[in-house]
Design goal:
The protein contains 6 helices and 8 strands. Strands 1-3-2-6-7-5-8-4 form an 8-stranded antiparallel barrel, surrounded by 5 helices. By secondary structure, the chain is α+β, with helices and mostly antiparallel strands. The longest helix has 16 residues. The protein has one domain: 2-Layer Sandwich (Alpha-Beta Plaits), CATH 3.30.70.100. α1 runs antiparallel to α3 and α4 runs antiparallel to α6. It starts with 7 loop residues before the first strand and ends in a 7-residue tail after the last strand.
């Protein structure tokens, strides 16, 4: 199995008992991480259950950092940084998912975080030979006038996701409690992810409605090869 080339992507999710100190670390960590050598992209994220994308599904006991690094060495060095040590010291658990991009489409804050070699269509093409687990990352900035319509479409999709074959983990992620949100999920294989995306009735219906409904002012979808998973989320490994 060939590991795809390209940047090293990490998602770290920390479980905490104390919410207010975690909010303070979210602010200070953003500034400190931006100075890290080899960093290409970073977002500090709140998390949720991925059931509704409203305030009721927010999880104040889990916080996350998505980072994109030039290479494995930069990511490894950052793992020993003061920023991540502070989170680890204050956390009850940590999940770290290491990945390489396979395919991405769209923009996050007007950039493609996973941009490397692109095809003629302008989107990164899949790396050959990857047969291991994959992750799907979605992110969208909702149009304020379309939020209610989008929220009504989410629960049926979430119900399908909860029972989808091959799904190891699914959680909501977002930069703000409402309106700037997404999902992160891990799957046993690319085929399991594809089957959910294109054969689950509620999800397929939502995909088909996306363009005519004009839910998103900005959106991104990325598929990533999962090269390593360490730690736990809600007491379970992924």
């Amino acid at each position: 199995m060939t590991v795809p080339s390209g940047p090293t992507v990490e998602l770290r999710v920390w479980g905490v008992d104390r919410v207010l100190p975690a909010l303070g670390r979210m602010s200070s960590s953003r500034r400190a991480l931006r100075r890290a050598p080899g960093l290409r992209f970073v977002k500090l994220l709140g998390t949720g259950t991925a059931r509704t994308f409203t305030l009721e599904s927010a999880d104040l006991k889990h916080w996350a950092a998505l980072t994109v690094w030039h290479d494995d060495e930069s990511a490894s060095a950052a793992g020993d940084s003061a920023v991540f040590r502070r989170w680890q010291d204050a956390s009850t658990e940590e999940l770290r998912v290491t990945m390489r991009p396979l395919r991405s489409k769209g923009r996050w804050s007007r950039v493609d975080p996973f941009e490397t070699t692109h095809s003629s269509t302008g989107h990164r093409t899949p790396g050959p030979g990857w047969t291991g687990p994959v992750a799907a990352l979605t992110r969208a900035r909702l149009r304020p006038t379309k939020m209610a319509s989008f929220w009504r479409a989410v629960p049926p999709v979430a119900s399908e996701l909860a029972g989808a074959q091959g799904n190891r983990l699914a959680l909501g992620v977002g930069e703000l409690p409402v309106g700037v949100q997404g999902t992160f999920s891990i799957w046993d294989s690319a085929q399991d992810l594809t089957d959910f995306a294109y054969r689950s009735p509620a999800h397929l219906s939502a995909v088909r409605r996306t363009a005519p409904s004009r839910w998103y002012a900005e959106e991104l979808f990325a598929r990533l090869a999962v090269t390593d998973v360490a730690g736990t989320y809600e007491g379970r490994s992924a």
